[in-house]
Amino acid sequence: MAITDWPESERPREKLLKNGAAYLSDAELLAIFLRTGMAGKSAVDLSRELLKRFNGLTGLFAADQNAFCEVPGMGPAKYAQLQAVLEMARRALEEKLKSGDTMSSPGSVRDYLRLSLQGKKHEIFVAIFLDAQNRTITTEELFNGTLTQTSVYPREVVKRALHHNAAAIIFAHNHPSGIAEPSQADEILTQSLKQALALVDVKVLDHFIVGSGAAMSFAERGLI
């Protein structure tokens, strides 16, 4: 049955307009994005299949073009639309971080980092450079690959902090395994960076580990 044949109170678009996006399921939100289904399947049916195939929204957002386009009914145009939506959301969160005191909206920091890092196939280490009022100056991807004390160089981080005239930094990296828990190497590295940056009077405010659907904060755990 086509969605247009459903009772109006059950149609995703009408539900969103009446109650807000937060009231919709993942499949219903995705159905609004897809707009149409295919022969024998409504947009909601197709959305459920996509979520099952990619293990939820995180997996779907991280899917590469080939994997996405292998799904019947999907194609390059729809993949491009999805990537554009994700990038607009990421940029909107980045604008929010730059508009005021970053530490006054920790939820925005977490959301931005999750959207930027979760689902990546390899580890990425990033830094958010802040001024004396904790406003975001810029965000940089500093290192790629396996995160160890030898592959993240405190000297290079100090150089970038001085280049941006930063007063503070928030670090983040992802765990491709999906587990947002710090390893011993993560904790040792964080302390090494904190000590190196203290020599140039730059504070390390937090270090986030981004996993599947979660972002763990060192500050919240008392590890900073």
Would you kindly provide a written description of the structure presented here, covering whatever features stand out?
This protein has 224 residues and is of the alpha+beta class. 46% of the residues lie in helices and 15% in strands. It has ten helices and five strands, in the order αααααααββαβαββα. The chain has helices at 12-19, 26-34, 43-53, 57-62, 65-69, 76-98, 106-117, 154-163, 184-198, 218-221; strands spanning 124-130, 136-144, 168-174, 203-210, 215-217. It has a five-stranded mixed sheet with strand order 2-1-3-4-5, sandwiched between helices. A hairpin with a 4-residue loop joins strand 4 and strand 5 (215-217). Helix 2 (26-34) packs across helix 3, helix 6 (76-98) runs antiparallel to helix 7 (106-117) and helix 8 (154-163) packs across helix 9. It is elongated, with a radius of gyration of 20 Å. It starts with 11 loop residues before the first helix and ends with a helix.
Q: Can you tag this structure with a few keywords?
A:
5 strands, alpha+beta, 224 residues, single chain, five-stranded mixed sheet, 46% helix
Number of strands: 5
Helix content: 40-55%
Report the uncertain regions. Answer: none
Kindly name the structural category: alpha+beta
Q: How far is the first residue's CA from the last residue's CA?
A: 55 Å
Q: What's the order of the H and E elements? A: HHHHHHHEEHEHEEH
Bulk shape: elongated
**Proportion of strand residues:** 15-25%
Q: Number of helical segments?
A: 10
Main β-sheet description: 5 strands, mixed
Strands of the biggest beta sheet: in what spatial order?
2-1-3-4-5
Overall mean pLDDT stands at 87
Radius of gyration: 20 Å
